[in-house]
Amino acid sequence: MPLPSDKIGKLYPPFDYAVGREKVREYAAAVGETNPLHFELEAARAAGYPDLLAPPMFVVVYCSSAFMTALFDPELEIDFAHLVHGAQEFRWEHPVVAGDEITTALTFAASSERAGLRFDTFETVSRNQRGELTCTGKWSTIIRGEE
Amino acid sequence: MVILQEGDRIELRLTPDRYVTVRYAGASGDFNPIHIDEDFARQVGLPGRILHGLWTMAQTARAATEAAGGDPTALLSLGVQFRGMGRMEQELMVSGEVKSVADGVATAKLEVTQGENRLIRNGVAELRTDVAGSSEGSAAQDS
User: Fold this and answer.
1) Is B27 within 8 Å of A91 when comparing Cβ atoms?
2) Which of A19, B38, B57, B136 has the most CB atoms in a 10 Å sphere around its CB?
3) What is the distance in angstroms between the Cα of A136 and the nearest Cα belonging to chain B?
4) Is B73 a domain residue?
């Protein structure tokens, strides 16, 4: 399976995402969160947040366009019919609240082949409007070869 | 916050309803038809629509956060490997155990199963935890 080895280190243009209050509620409900910090403004403010607190895994919402852009990059030659999400890591730093504007930079970090499988790794670094780091992510995909 | 100790068990059980992937597709923006279109899923050889891996990871995050007392900012990191395909209307279980605690950070190992099917393995979560004898305030007030 050919590897896009010469594209390792490719940095994609930063992607901006404005965190909406209703989007936080919608996401929190979709994953079954019940903590009032994600739903009730008074509860969030009483806990010291300026607006609703996004659940940690909301990171996938503000990073998804960056990740999709890379997956659809023709230079990476990704075979969607055989693509699976193999692994995922996140490290959270500054909390994200509704009203934040998050900028995510994505790098195509690694590509290797083993046993007919292609393993790719993408790295994201997300910062809020004050430049504070909110989350770093490592997204690992596997492409199976033709049987 | 809760004081986590080595050996503490983490468990969360839930049964995803048949429309959970539709709501999650809208909330997350992941409209891959294998999650929302029964005919498409079968055409590509799946048993039917399957759960989003990142939704399942969110259940892992929720289980870890609840074990730490419910403060969402207690979750410092989470890494998982995706394995089997999750289905709707079957009970899913997140289970894990705190393996070590050092410097106010508990490290837990987690997995997600649905019957005999393992959806997530080698999950590792780092959680901020109070230390016995400490009287620090909640994380929210620190940030």
Assistant:
1) no
2) B57
3) 9
4) yes
Q: Is the Cβ of A33 closer than 8 Å to some Cβ of chain B?
A: yes
Domain with B106 in it: 9-17+51-142
Q: What is the 3-state secondary structure (H, E, C) of A42-88?
A: HHHHHCCCCCCECCHHHHHHHHHHHHHHHHCCHHHCCCHHHEEEEEE
Over residues B77-110, the pLDDT tens digits come to 999 999 999 999 999 999 999 999 999 999 999 9
Q: Which residues of A touch B26 (CB under 8 A)?
A: 26, 30
Closest approach of chain A CAs to the CA of B5, in angstroms?
22
Residue B44 domain flag? no
pLDDT above 60: residue B136: no
Would you call A64 and B59 a contact, using CB atoms and an 8 Å cutoff? Answer: no
Catalogue all structural domains in chain A, each as residue range(s) with its CATH number. 7-19+54-144 (3.10.129.10)
HSE of B87 in the Cβ direction (CA atoms, 13 Å)? 12
